[in-house]
Amino acid sequence: MITKWANNSWKFNMENAVESAIFNSEKDKPLTWFLKQKDGLSALHPDMSDTMINMKILRKCGGELEHAIKCRGVEPC
């Protein structure tokens, strides 16, 4: 996907889409939203580890959801 579409315009549009997406539990399905964010970040930053991708996505959830997930993770919150 990157080799076919990775021109400057595509990168700019993909970065804007990934950065502006914030999880809204009323309109977004969690799995669909998460996978879309993961695919976008993986395409933009292929060298980024899965842990870093997950942390970036988790920061976009915010509030009580972010806190609840961090407290149930391997590392204490």
UniProtKB/TrEMBL annotation:
<protein>
    <submittedName>
        <fullName>Uncharacterized protein</fullName>
    </submittedName>
</protein>
